[in-house]
Every structure is written in structure tokens, then in C-alpha cells.
Amino acid sequence: MFYIDGVSLNKIKDELKDNLTGKKINKITKNTETSLSIYFGKMELVFSCNPNFPICYITNSKEGVLESSAGLAANMKKHLLNAMLTDIVQLGFDRILNFKFSKINELGEIKNYNIYFEIMGKYSNFIFTDENDKIIDLLKRFSLEENRLRALFPGISYEQPIIEKKISPLELDEKRFVEFSENGTLLKSVEGVGKVLLQSLNSFQDFKDILNSNLAPKIFLNSKRIVLATVLNITPKSKYDEVLEFESFREIVNYYISSENLSSSFDSLKSQLMDNIIKRVKKDEKILKVLAKEKEDKIDYEKYKEQGDILASCIYSVKKGMSSVDAYDFYNDTMIKIPLEPQHTPQENLEKIYKKYNKLKRGLEANSRRVVEVSQDLDYLNSIKLFIETSNDIGNLRLIHEELISQGYLKQSNKKGKSKKQSREIGYGVVEGENYKILYGRNNIENDNLTFKVADKNDIWLHSKNIPGSHVIIKCEQLTDDILFRGAEIAAFYSKGFTGDKISVDYTQKRYINKPKGGKPGFVTYINEKNILVVKPEKLSE
To answer: Contact at 8 Å (CB) between 404 and 380?
Structure first.
């Protein structure tokens, strides 16, 4: 958790002010549906209204851009390009920052604008107004049903959210601090104080020290997992075994976002890839249903051959003009009636029946081939879907993106200029023990690389049986049952069926793995396999 209350934001505001005041806007982009960026030269200020982590910060990495020629970004470009940031103020100790801008227009007039950035969980918002606080545009437009406290629409005046009247922490004295603490109303009575800060206060002096201290960015970890990230000089109540210290808010927030995969680039790319794959999975599933119905309609094609053979045996008794003929069915030892076309000769009727038989037979064969093709494509798409869902790194998502482009599922973006092909080292996940290493692929490119370039011929190769998943390689001097089962657990966990109670995992030596010619990334065949049944694989620690 990254803890931000009004007191924290007051300190964050000061750092942003030092870094950005006096700088001019040269670029504005919309990154996702809930985030946008304002550029001051090469410095990118991100505003994210992601309900999981609403924040504004100077990013160290480029954010993904959502191409848009209309809406908020266009309105801001019209008014704010080349505008100078003159000040950043906080509305009291509320979690609202007011960014003030000034610009000289074509007529030589000075125009002032405001951005109000409200950090309020799912109601977080970015509101752009003129100098009279009339709303020009905003990122999120809530209906009155969603937010009954106030109206937020272009054309009306901006109003601060209605909140209970509280005392400013700057006005709090020791007497009232003790009074509020004893009756449990400090949180409700003092502006800018949140639960985590409250839990860290043992005295009024503690509160004064935190309030007057400089930024103290720290991340507290327990077993490598983030327990608390804060810019205040406080410690978490929960257990921790490591503390990381940072020089600035910029450093800590970029580290946190990278660690927790909360950047808009990661979120946007993951959403884009997942939407594309889900659409194609649904298409393949629909095709398979149509093919199943088609197969059902053609499955009785043999009856036309039998009908033709029976007609051929009695064709001497058939005359042109007959609409049917009664004949002996020597296949089923019974009499049947064979319908005929009166305008056709007996021979033409016979040819027509055989022609229908051959057409249905060819159609059924084509149907079977198509079912195999679409089923393989569906398996591949499901493997991609699994790797997108379990991805915790934007580099991994970019590899998946490149793979989908190479396989024709996504189009290469047409950007001006020559595209530079990036040579990127292909990695893999590692679980290491005292006398073994278990390697696993996190996407199909890594799966292929791991199996055919990293693994030795005698290494043990594992994969969940008949369901998409990671290729897993065990490297060790002496294979034991414990090591083998650990590898099977990893293969089961990183598979599409890991939520089930039991998962079947195949294993064999790498020498028995084969890549069919023209096979999609990650697709292999294997022989001489054995099987392990894994019961409820537990989540692996990093």
C-alpha cells in the first residue's frame, strides 16, 4: 500500500512545486481512459485516476499513449500548450492539488487556467477550468446517481467536494490533540490525518515532528513484499523485515509503480492485448460451434453411397419420368423407396446421388481439417491469454505484443520513419534450490527459447497435460522425487488449470521434445512421457 493522506500530499506538493514551477507545457497526451500526461520539456507529469492508486507524479519511464483527437486532451492542447506553471497549491489539507497556469494568447492577453486534481479513490478526478473556475473539461464525468454530493460538467463552476468541517493540523494544539485522542475523534476532527498516520501517533510531539519534518520516503517490506510505502516519518503496525529509503517522492513512487505494475503503460498494454485475444477466442469458439453443426448435417453421407449402390443394382427397371422407385436394400435387408427426379434419366439420377455423396464426403473431410486448425489456434490463443493474465512485467507484455505481430494477430503500428528492430535478451523465470534450478517460460517466445536453446538434452522438461501453460526445465546433478515434484508444482501453477483441485503434469527428457514444422510459438510434441498428478499447487513466492 502507498499511503497518501492530506499531510503526505502537502509534502509531495512541495517537491512537485520545486521541480515544475516556471516551466512551460510543450506536449499533452492521454495515456488511458483514466490517465494523462503533461510534458514540461523532457519532464513528464502523469495524472492517474486509477482507483487502485490515484496519484500525480513525474515519471522516469515513457507512458503509453491512447491516440485521441478529441475530448479532454484536445481541449487542453487548445488552451494550455506553451502555458507556464505558476504555482501548485493544496486546498487546505484535503487531498486536492490546484495547478495554476498562465499563458499569453495571440492577442497579447494573459489567460489563466487551473487544474484541480482530486485524489479520492474511485471518485478521483482531473478537472480543467478557466481563471474563473468554470469547468472547461474533465477526465471522468460522474452521473448524479454516482455522485450525489455535487455536479461535475463542463460549463458549471468548480466546487470543492462537500466535507465535514475540520481543524487544520497547523491550528491544532496539545490540549485539543489530547481531547480528540481520548474520545477517538482525532480522525474526524483534524484535516489531512489518515488511519495509518493516526496509528503512528503516541503524543502531540510525534504529530508536530511528522508535520514539520521533511520528506522521508520509505518502503517497508516483509518477505520481499511491500507492506507500506510512505513519504512520512512513520512505521507500519504490521510485521516488516526490510526498509528501503529514497531521496525523493519521485524515486519512491516510480519504484513502487514499477514493483506493483501500476503504470498506465502496463495497464494500457495489458488491456489492449487482453481485449484482442478475448475477441479472437470468442470468434474461434463460434467457428467451432458452426463446424460442429455442419458435421452433424454431413455425418450421414454414407447413406447416399448406399442409396446409389442400391439404385445401380436395379437401374434396368427405372424409366425416365418416374418420381421414385421401390428397391431392395441389401445393406439392411429391407425394401426402401428411392426418390428420383422425373425429368432426369435413370443414369443422371444415379450420378446425382453419387455426386451428393462425394460432395458431403469432401465437405466432412474439410470440416475435420478445419476443426483441427481452429482448435490449434484456440489452444494457442488460450496460452497467450494465460501469459497476459499472469504477466507482472511490462517487458514480458511487450514480448507477447511482438509475438502477436509476428503471428499476424496484431498489425504493426505505422509510425513515420524507419522502425528500429530492438534486440532484446530473452529471459525466463527461475526458482532456485540448494542443488537445483527450475526454469519456466513466461510467454511462448520464452517457452521456445527455454526448451530449444537453454535446456540440455538430458534436462527434465515438464508441462501441464493438454492445457496451455509454461514450459518448465529442471537442471540438477541428481534428480530426486522432491525436485521433480517441485518442478511439477511450478508447471501446474503456471498453467490455465492451476485453479483446479488436481492438475496432471507430463514430464520427459528434453531430447524427446520436437517442434513441428510451421508450429506456432510454444507448440511442441513429445514422446516417452510420464505423468504426475499435482493437488492444489500453492502460489510461489518471487
So the answer is: no
Q: What is the 3-state secondary structure (H, E, C) of 402-469?
A: HHHHHCCCCCCCCCCCCCCCCCCCCCCEEEECCCEEEEECCCHHHHHHHHHHHCCCCCEEEEECCCCE
With beta carbons less than 8 A apart as the criterion, state whether 444 and 437 touch.
no
Grid cell of 64 as nine digits: 503509453
CA contacts within 13 A on the Cβ side of 341: 10
Let me know the angle formed at the C-alpha of 171 by 86 and 169, rounded to the nearest 5 degrees.
70
Length of the chain counted residue by residue: 542
Q: Over range 470-491, report the average pLDDT.
A: 92
Q: How far apart are CA 113 and CA 131, in angstroms?
A: 5
CA dist 24 and 103 (Å) reads: 9
- Residue 502 C-alpha cell reads as 488436481
CB half-sphere exposure, 128, CA atoms < 13 A: 19
- Burial tier of 212 (Cβ tally within 10 Å: 0-12, 13-18, 19+): exposed
Amino acid at 190: V
Which residue do the cell numbers 503500428 mark? 413
428 and 442 Cβ atoms separated by less than 8 Å: yes
Mean pLDDT of 100-127: 91
Cα–Cα dist 185/368, whole Å:
72
Count how many Cα atoms sit within 13 Å of the Cα of residue 195 in the half-sphere of its side chain: 4
Q: How far apart are the first and last CA of the chain?
A: 18
Q: What is the pTM of this model?
A: 0.62
The rounded Cα 122 to chain-centroid distance in angstroms is 19
Q: CA–CA separation, 256 vs 4, rounded Å?
A: 13
- pLDDT at residue 414 in the model: 56
Is pLDDT at 82 greater than 50 in this prediction? Answer: yes
Q: Are 98 and 88 in contact (CB under 8 A)?
A: yes
**Half-sphere exposure for 110 (CA within 13 Å, toward CB):** 5
Paired sense of beta strands 35-40 and 125-130, if any: unpaired
Cell readout for 19 is 521541480
Element (H, E) at 55: strand 55-58
DSSP H helices, 172-263, are 174-182, 186-189, 195-199, 204-212, 249-260
